[in-house]
Write a structure and sequence with these properties.
There is one protein chain. By secondary structure, the chain is α/β, with parallel strands linked by helices. The strands form 2 sheets. A 6-stranded mixed beta sheet has the order 1-2-10-7-8-9, with helices on both faces. Strand 3, helix 3 and strand 4 form a beta-alpha-beta unit. It is globular, with a radius of gyration of 21 Å. The structure holds ligand F0G.
Length: about 375
């Protein structure tokens, strides 16, 4: 997929991420198998890297000295790293207090000019869209077409890793709604080349508090979209006015996928389950499993079918969320109130609060015993 000549490619050796089996989660869902494509295993810890290698290469080849993005964290981390590799300056606009520390630290580490604006992600996008008109700055938000050319490549990798047998379903988180269509483009191109004869159904999952696409599809079949004031702990997808919603509607339509919304409780439980598989991901990625549970419950994903969860970000990007969950400090009483008996049991099974002990061998042995008998769980 040549965009610029080989020697001008800005790369951190992204891509070729693992496709993991999730046997315990599959069994719990009554599925024969379940797979997770972990895009969080890319160099800066998210799926944004495959897009940034393409877009930064074009920015540099076009002679730009500055690149910029508005971000909920991951785009900024990726852009900052690739800009640093290329030796160009980068400007990051992020909503103050609304992104995970791990992501903020990356932009700083890679030497970006980081501006925390007193607004939300949608406000940052608005400001940046004017800035790029008034200064010679290359815009690297996901409206940039070259980013999508890079972000389609996990579709190729999934097919290669599945021996060119397309899975029945690919489940992706929905924020600004570019990634679902990028993957759709990847699968469409493979069909066009005759390498596969059908595409997976691509389903998009949103957090209940940041669900403009879900609402649009429910209320008017995706004809128009009303922005919402977004609020979810899955900060990466806390987006109320998604730029690429029309592309998302088209992708769902042509692949035959669905859009689901999931609660904060469902996200937290799903994240802990993915962690317990020894895989782990950030909260925004865990919506995929929470959504899959709904798709299985309403009969849209069948026992014999293969589903691939697209895990978009690394678990270490938001360790504060994970620690709070395991300490029992994440979800409010009100959020736990509606939990089913199965969810409560799942929560009790998954939570592992750290225990503080004296440096005493017997105390440590007692802790092992109590964990083995199940009584030591938080
Ligand atoms: N998952 C993660 C971890 C993300 O960082 C994002 C988006 C998404 C899912 C949603 O993807 O926007 O294509 O629907 N993060 C952007 C950012 C907005 O600034 O890092 P989408």
């Amino acid at each position: 997929m040549p965009i610029v000549s080989e020697e001008r490619v800005v790369t951190l050796r992204e891509g070729n991420t693992p496709l993991y089996e999730m046997p315990r989660t599959a069994a719990a869902l009554g599925l024969n198998w379940l797979l997770a494509k972990h895009q969080g295993m890319n160099p800066t810890g998210s799926f944004k890297d495959t897009g940034m290698t393409a877009a930064l290469s074009v920015a540099v080849a076009s002679g730009f000295e500055w690149v910029a993005c508005a971000s909920t964290g991951n785009t900024s981390a990726a852009m900052a790293a690739y800009a640093a590799r290329a030796g160009v300056r980068s400007l990051v606009l992020i909503p103050e207090g609304k992104i995970a520390w791990g992501k903020l630290s990356q932009a700083m580490d890679y030497g970006s000019t980081t501006l925390q604006l007193r607004t939300d992600f949608d406000g940052c996008v608005r400001v940046l869209s004017e800035v790029v008109q008034r200064a010679p700055v290359y815009l690297l938000n996901s409206v940039n077409p070259y980013r999508l050319e890079g972000q389609k490549t996990p579709a190729f990798e999934i097919l290669e890793q599945c021996d060119w047998q397309p899975p029945h379903h690919v489940i992706v988180p929905g924020g600004n709604l570019a990634n679902c269509s990028a993957l759709g483009k990847g699968f469409a191109e493979m069909m066009h080349l005759g390498l596969i004869h059908r595409a997976p159904k691509i389903s998009v999952i949103q957090a209940e508090g940041a669900n403009p696409l879900y609402r649009s599809l429910q209320s008017n079949g995706g004809v128009s979209l009303e922005p919402v004031v977004a609020k979810t702990r899955a900060s990466a997808i806390q987006i109320g006015s998604p730029a690429s919603w029309k592309k998302a509607v088209r992708t769902l339509a042509w692949t035959g996928g669905w859009c689901e919304q999931v609660s904060e409780r469902e996200i937290a439980l799903a994240k802990a389950e993915i962690g317990a598989e020894g895989i782990g991901c950030e909260p925004a990625s865990a919506v995929t499993l929470a959504g899959l549970k709904k798709l299985v419950a309403n009969g849209r994903v069948g026992k014999e079918e293969t589903a691939v969860l697209l895990l978009t970000g690394h678990t270490l990007k938001d360790s504060e969320y994970t620690i709070k969950y395991h300490l029992g400090e994440l979800l409010s009483d009100a959020e736990m109130e509606g939990a089913s008996a199965a969810e409560l049991a799942e929560n009790a099974r998954l939570r592992r609060a750290p225990v503080v002990l004296d440096a005493d061998v017997d105390a440590v042995l007692r802790a092992i015993d109590s964990q083995a008998s199940g009584s030591g769980r938080a």
